[in-house]
Input
Amino acid sequence: MGFLTFFLNFIILTLIYRIVTIQYLRKLRKSGNNFRNVVIVGSEDMGKEIYNALTADLSQGYKVLGYFDEKKGDKAIVANYLGPIKSIYEYITTNSVQEVYVALRDFSTIEIRQLISYCERNLIRIKFVPDYKLFKETSSVSIDFYGSVPVVSLREEPLEIPLNRLKKRFFDITFSLLVIVFIFPWLFPILIIMVKLSSPGPIFFKQKRTGEGNVEFYCWKFRTMRMNNDSDSRQATANDNRITRVGKILRKTNLDEMPQFFNVLFGNMSVVGPRPHMVKHTNEYSEIIDNYLVRHFARPGITGWAQTNGLRGETKSVDKMAKRVEYDIWYIENWSFLLELKIIYFTIRNMFAGDKNAV
Output
């Protein structure tokens, strides 16, 4: 009976939340706020149709800044003409563009690949409005309709759906509160004493890491190392002499990550998601792995799909980091609530078994 009451209340609160949120966003966007900046590549029929579809309803939250096109160099012919395609790179980075829509009938494959690579390396979503059948054979694309206009995205993103984001956030808050209320009161004193006795220094360790949207935040952990000056630049390695004996136990069992449930509660992190990396690594790997920043389309997690598949600890090579990124992107493309629970189950199992890849 209690579960049924909880379920009904959850449905009612979700409906109320959706209605209130939609009305609030409409009001906010009518005043010119809370828009995604968008540009369109191609100003012919499909370009104009997607422009009309994106601007038809303010509640969609799109602000179309204009068109890039090789054929239309006269602003009198095409309203909001921004220039030839080669000038798009500077424009989208200096004008905070979040999405690019490619609506060209004829295009160079090389040019489009360059644009895809540039957008993904700068955390900009790119979507296509051509003959969508050209992309149907690609396993990761998503085909949506804005009105009657087909739009091809490079990947499925279930967490782009507001209801899925709401379910995930509700679960994050509930789960983290349960851990904080029922586990922290007895576990934290034990861990605090162990860390304090292990070596001189603070109990907690905080470090700037990159999160959703490439936004930096402070990630909290129990301190597992002796005090050193390399923590923000040097990754932990096997047999690292900086790690204390207590630290090895905490790392092996994931207990050093427990303070991150406060990060989850405050909205910096999620229980499950791509693990947040130190800022130095984000800057380095985003330059050498083209799709590295795609993992930042999702909120980072205490645990993730990559970690439950053995990709924990030191990344000794670019290939190993690329593999981790591959698993993170798979999680983003295939998110479901059941997958979330599966990852949590494997993480808890590994906590008791001990993870051989943890250092």
Observations:
- Residues 2-30 form the longest helix (29 residues).
- The chain is about 45% helix and 15% strand.
